[in-house]
Amino acid sequence: RSLTAEWSPLDWLKIGETAGADYYNEWRVTALPYTSSGEPDGEVTRLDLNNLELDHNLTATASPPFSNNFAGTFTLGQNLNARRYRQVAVDGLTLKTAAPLDLQNTVSYSPSEFRSLEHTESYFGQATVDLFDQLYFTGALRNDGYSTFGVSDRRAWFPKVSAAWTFTNALGNKDQKGFLSYGKLRAAYGQTGKEPAVYQTITALSLTSQFGSGFGDVVNESQSGLPGVITAFAAGNSNLKPERTRETEVGADFGFLDQKVDAGITYYNSKSTDVILQVPTNGASTGFGAALANG
Q1: In terms of Cα–Cα distance, which of 192, 199, 206 is closest to 237?
Q2: Regarding beta strands 135-146 and 2-10, do their DSSP bridges make them parallel or antiparallel, or are they unpaired?
Q3: Residue 3, phi then psi, degrees to nearest 5
Q4: What is the pTM of this model?
Q5: Is 192 exposed, middle or buried (0-12, 13-18, 19+ CB in 10 A)?
Q6: What angle do CA 135, 140, 142 make, to 5 degrees?
Q7: What confidence tens digit (pLDDT) does each residue in 120-136 have?
Q8: In whole angstroms, what is the distance from residue 134 CA to residue 169 CA?
């Protein structure tokens, strides 16, 4: 669901606002009967999933009338986003009878619950310029803030620029006729970012009911009737930076024979830095199997 409002206080100024919500529930049951390779004694798992996302956009776009040979637009905007996720799972092991495949028909239950809440806050500006109906320039700058980062540095800047030249217009062929009916050269550069998964920057205790190496050595966190908690597998890192991707693209587009045939060539390069990775650690000395870091 979404609501949209637009207001034009001037002929060349438009203000727009959009607010939306996306909500869904999912109930899922999976089961493995007797003699299954994954669980020979049988298993039943019940999942209740709930997801809510709220999104808000506010933009102001100015398109002042300059001249016949010069046109441009200027946009300022804000984006607010919130994502809430809930998951409740119950895993039942060892079927009492072959049917029914229900939780009540299992010997032991293992419940788990997960909740997360994420917020992003972004501000951006963009300018476009059109010169002589042949030269086109775009420049933009975006500042994103993520709640999933540590409190020391939650914001980052991401720029982008592009330029294009329709050289056939400069040669007087705006009607796109003839053998070489259309030709354009273009180049672009931009940066994008990726935040860590929720709660990866903190080191916390886990209330999971079982843990182990994954090779069958499962141990309950509660022993002899006494409750307990365990450390997470990976240590958090409050100094994580955004994973940054820099992309460069250069190309050319051509049209031939009154636009009956077209061709294009593109060079594209993408490089990611500060990739967020799980780095193995010495569990005997740190108590963790891995630590998060920018690679």
Answers
A1: 199
A2: unpaired
A3: -125, 140
A4: 0.81
A5: middle
A6: 170
A7: 999 999 999 999 999 99
A8: 6
